[in-house]
């Protein structure tokens, strides 16, 4: 478990954006012998072959072909997660010069908790598109790595009602300070300079970018017995890592698949999101004949892994009294009568049985009946491809904050259950 958590923290620290997360996953898959396939090429598969493909550089699907029999006879054991997290993104024309300071305008991505973004050492990372001096267009991942920005709080002396009445205006309160104004800032020129400083040559002009702010504080274990994990982007890179670790560690002979989609935090409606056609396109190429594909899906199951709300000791009244998951007390099955989660009594029973085989405890989460329930890629994927599905997750605190908190044992335990799932010969039904 200690080795697992160290690898997890290394992954979280390096995965500043969905692009960086997918790059990390590609590296691990290639090291394990998986073959990368380009969507524009013809695909050919071998029995027991291991493959992956990406879309937009921010979503990834990896899969293992069964070693014996055909997919329509064995089905697929599928795990799903998402690569994106709420954050602040740099606007297309971000330069601000006000009162002697250089600032960047930002846009809020997803349902971020905004207060924790103040007074943090922030850096910038993402993907940059540029034209080379020979006229070719290229893209490159960029990470400033060092702290370069901050959003200072307003002193309490100038905001006496900060504890009682203030709300955050995302347009006016969140522009970050980069430095003191000298010459006018040309942000694209700054990106060109930073890329060149990192060894990229032959750049004529930066054309565009998709860049996010992130907290430079590294992931850490916390607690008297190091029982807690703290990091940015636990929702939901934690599940991406767990799913990947389970796939690589299962050595399965069954048909197995991991899908990690971008854009879940903003509704999943994109070419690379769960409401888009990426997974369906891969399945169509695995089994082009529609009836065979439907037979395969009828023998398949998807486990949607996305973190759950642990019961906060200071806010226990925000939970249903019988459904308050505890950190380090096992993965959580998420249930909602209105189909905000994809769990059914059949799929939850299968998961409980898998967990029992690994001697891993299981918890349940149901939102209070007088509160709105969030959702995941589980119901979306189930509706898109017609597969039975289950929503589970590791319990955590501070979801959508700049720094989140989970139990150090829960991720390891969930990985063990998912490994068992990947090798399971029968899923019932």
Topology:
Elements: H1 2-14, H2 18-31, E1 35-36, E2 50-55, E3 59-64, H3 71-74, E4 76-82, E5 87-98, E6 101-109, E7 122-132, E8 137-143, H4 170-173, E9 176-180, H5 187-197, E10 203-215, E11 220-222, E12 228-231, H6 234-250, E13 255-261, H7 278-286, H8 290-298, E14 301-305, E15 308-309, E16 332-334, H9 345-357, E17 363-365, H10 377-385, E18 389-393, E19 395-397, E20 404-407, H11 410-423
Question: How does this structure look, described?
Answer:
- With 429 residues, this protein is α/β, with parallel strands linked by helices.
- The chain folds into two domains: 2-85 and 232-423, 3-Layer(aba) Sandwich (Aminopeptidase); 87-215, Aminopeptidase i, Domain 2, CATH 2.30.250.
- Helix content is 27%, strand content 27%.
- It has helices at residues 2-14, 18-31, 71-74, 170-173, 187-197, 234-250, 278-286, 290-298, 345-357, 377-385, 410-423; strands spanning 35-36, 50-55, 59-64, 76-82, 87-98, 101-109, 122-132, 137-143, 176-180, 203-215, 220-222, 228-231, 255-261, 301-305, 308-309, 332-334, 363-365, 389-393, 395-397, 404-407.
- A nine-stranded mixed sheet has the order 1-2-3-13-4-14-18-16-17, sandwiched between helices. Strands 8-7-10-5-6-9 form a six-stranded antiparallel sheet.
- A hairpin with a 5-residue loop joins strand 11 (220-222) and strand 12.
- The model has no long low-confidence stretch (mean pLDDT 95).
């Amino acid at each position: 478990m200690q080795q697992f958590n160290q690898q997890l923290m290394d992954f979280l620290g390096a995965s500043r954006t969905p692009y960086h997360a997918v790059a990390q996953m590609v590296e691990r898959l290639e090291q394990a012998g998986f073959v990368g396939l380009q969507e524009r090429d013809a695909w050919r598969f071998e029995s027991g072959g291991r493959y992956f493909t990406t879309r937009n550089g921010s979503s990834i699907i990896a899969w293992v072909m069964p070693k014996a029999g055909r997919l329509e006879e064995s089905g697929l054991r599928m795990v799903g997660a998402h690569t994106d997290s709420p954050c602040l993104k740099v606007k297309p024309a971000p330069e601000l010069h006000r009162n002697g300071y250089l600032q960047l305008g930002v846009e809020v991505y997803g349902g971020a908790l905004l207060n924790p973004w103040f007074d943090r050492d922030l850096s910038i990372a993402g993907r940059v598109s540029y034209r080379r001096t020979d006229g070719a267009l290229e893209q490159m991942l960029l990470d400033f790595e060092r702290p370069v920005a901050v959003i200072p709080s307003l002193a309490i002396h100038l905001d006496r009602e900060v504890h009682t009445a203030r709300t955050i205006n995302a347009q006016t309160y969140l522009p970050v300070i980069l430095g003191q104004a000298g010459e006018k800032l040309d942000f694209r020129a700054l990106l060109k300079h930073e890329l060149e400083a990192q060894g990229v040559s032959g750049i004529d002009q930066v054309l565009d970018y998709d860049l996010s702010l992130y907290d430079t504080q590294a992931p850490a274990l916390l607690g008297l017995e190091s029982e807690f994990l703290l990091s940015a982007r636990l929702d939901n890179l934690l599940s991406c890592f767990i799913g990947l670790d389970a796939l690589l560690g299962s050595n399965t002979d069954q048909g197995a698949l991991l899908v990690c989609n971008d854009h879940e935090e903003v509704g999943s409606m994109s070419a690379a999101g769960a409401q888009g056609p990426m997974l369906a396109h891969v399945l169509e190429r695995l089994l082009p004949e529609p009836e065979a594909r439907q037979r395969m899906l009828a023998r398949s199951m998807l486990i949607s892994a996305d973190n759950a709300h642990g019961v906060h000791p200071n806010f226990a009244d925000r939970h249903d009294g019988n459904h308050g998951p505890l950190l380090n007390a096992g993965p959580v099955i998420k249930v909602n009568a209105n189909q905000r989660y994809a769990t059914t009594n059949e799929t939850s029973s299968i998961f409980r049985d898998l967990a029992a085989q690994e001697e891993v405890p299981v918890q349940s989460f149901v939102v209070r009946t007088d509160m709105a329930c969030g959702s995941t890629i589980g119901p979306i994927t189930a509706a898109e491809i017609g597969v039975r599905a289950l929503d589970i997750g590791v319990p955590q605190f501070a979801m959508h904050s700049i720094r989140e908190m989970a139990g150090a044992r829960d991720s390891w335990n969930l990985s063990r259950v998912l490994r068992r799932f990947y090798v399971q010969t029968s899923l019932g039904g």
